[in-house]
Automatic annotation (TrEMBL):
One of its GO terms (biological process) is mitochondrial proton-transporting ATP synthase complex assembly. This is Mitochondrial inner membrane protease ATP23. It comes from the Eukaryota. GO terms for cellular component: mitochondrion. Coiled coil: none annotated. GO terms for molecular function: metal ion binding; metalloendopeptidase activity. Its EC number is 3.4.24.-. Belongs to the peptidase M76 family.
Length: 192
């Protein structure tokens, strides 16, 4: 989920389950050593976007989200909504794809429903968020077409959370940009 600066939801010290900020920071450091995260960081830097050591940080979040990308601030990972390393890895990968999109598109406007939908389509498709094993664990059982259904469901969830996008606007935007954005696999040669 990508958001405008300051709109990712207040951070609190309330514990809703999940892990501590320190535990999450440790898992973020581990995720930085995974091949996919290293690849995305390398391509962000090749695109002219330097990400410092504090670009990805663990925080406690009030909103029921796993994390977010904030232009000019970096990536937040919501420690109180995550429990295991794989979840942290997925959030970091998903949000790095948003950061890459923001870096390569000088005119990306997160308040534009189509721009937001496109980045969500790419992040959902390229990050592995919708791998069939993850979908089974979420309770979604469908063999054919599960990945696109999952991406669509997750795009709608994220874009409708954008204060500039009604449900109808989010759906129209997603449909309008689907083919172009789903097939845009940069920086990968093909969808991983």
């Amino acid at each position: 989920m990508a958001t405008e600066p300051g709109s990712a939801g207040g951070y609190s010290s309330a514990v809703d389950g999940g892990m501590t900020v320190d535990e999450c920071d440790s898992m973020i450091r581990r995720s930085l050593r995974t091949p996919m995260v290293k690849f995305l960081k390398e391509h962000l830097e090749k695109s002219g976007c330097n990400i410092g050591s504090n670009f990805i940080k663990a925080v406690r979040c009030d909103k029921k989200v796993s994390g977010g990308y904030l232009r000019g601030e970096g990536i937040v990972v919501c420690s109180n909504h995550l429990k295991i390393q794989d979840e942290v890895n997925q959030v970091v990968i998903h949000e790095l794809i948003h950061a890459y999109d923001d870096c390569r598109a000088a005119n990306l406007d997160w308040s534009d429903c189509a721009h937001h939908a496109c980045s969500e389509i790419r992040a959902g498709h390229l990050s592995g968020d919708c791998h069939y094993k993850r979908e089974l664990l979420r309770g979604f059982v469908k063999i054919r077409g599960h990945e696109q259904d999952c991406v669509r469901r997750r795009v709608m969830k994220s874009v409708t959370a954008n204060p500039y996008c009604s449900e109808a606007a989010a759906k129209d935007a997603m449909e309008a940009v689907w083919d172009v954005c789903y097939n845009d696999t940069k920086p990968f040669d093909r969808a991983p």
